[in-house]
Known about the structure:
Elements: E1 2-4, H1 7-19, E2 25-30, H2 36-48, E3 51-56, H3 76-85, E4 90-92, H4 96-99, H5 118-121, H6 125-140, E5 144-148, H7 152-164, E6 170-174, H8 194-199, H9 202-215, H10 222-234, E7 239-249, E8 267-276, E9 279-287, H11 289-295
Helix pairs in contact: 6-7, 9-10
EC number: 6.3.2.1
Binding site for (R)-pantoate: 62, 154
Enzyme class: ligase
Amino acid sequence: xxxxxxxxxxxxxxxxxxxxxxxxxxxxxxxxxxxxxxxxxxxxxxxxxxxxxxxxxxxxxxxxxxxxxxxxxxxxxxxxxxxxxxxxxxxxxxxxxxxxxxxxxxxxxxxxxxxxxxxxxxxxxxxxxxxxxxxxxxxxxxxxxxxxxxxxxxxxxxxxxxxxxxxxxxxxxxxxxxxxxxxxxxxxxxxxxxxxxxxxxxxxxxxxxxxxxxxxxxxxxxxxxxxxxxxxxxxxxxxxxxxxxxxxxxxxxxxxxxxxxxxxxxxxxxxxxxxxxxxxxxxxxxxxxxxxxxxx
Length: 296
Ligand code: AMP
């Protein structure tokens, strides 16, 4: 595994792999403090690609002024061990100066898809994400890029960017990796106190219950499902709901409150963002109610 820290080294390393027939090239962008969710992306990339490039960069322009950019957990040594163990060939670890040597004046904005969910709670966040991912695509020129559905809105936004701008890369969405008790893995889970960690199970539990209620016909409309989600989450006194929404996926369009979910065309997403103290956690479930209803 090669560790590269400059733009020149990265371009040289990836073009060497391509020149010597070691493609296709897969890219796994991360902010580090790696866990098994990231490892699952590396493994998927390894199955599809001759060369796997992982980037580790806590991207300042996707954090708001009152967010956790400074506090974001970092552990380069541990990350490199995991990356090597999980088959990364090249790890790109730039500093902020390498990625943004001067104030950036060009940004990519994906409209509409970024107005709801995390786009509404974190103004400017997705511009930061699309801009840094576009830079990484230009640098690495991967055939495939791997992203987790833990950040489902990010997947939808990046697919739109790639389609709109004819970027020559295929986005591969990968399933959410969870702890055995259901909590979605996240680098931010380390912020949680023991009690917050216990109560944080309410995210995955409420999503499971909501899905079951739809499948069994106890909750038929978006209003009913939203009420069920918020009432289950409110059962945890430390939980402070940022949003609990039901939208079409990947268009992220709202469904009318009294719209029967089983009549939705295609997939829907139930998406949550919940604060525990200063820690904001997200989770979601994507499924097709029609198919599920047809099975029962
Ligand atoms: P991050 O380092 O949090 O920016 O995440 C880097 C990539 O890993 C993103 O594509 C995330 O969606 C993905 N990821 C983070 N957590 C998980 C998880 N629990 N399961 C699957 N993918 C994840």
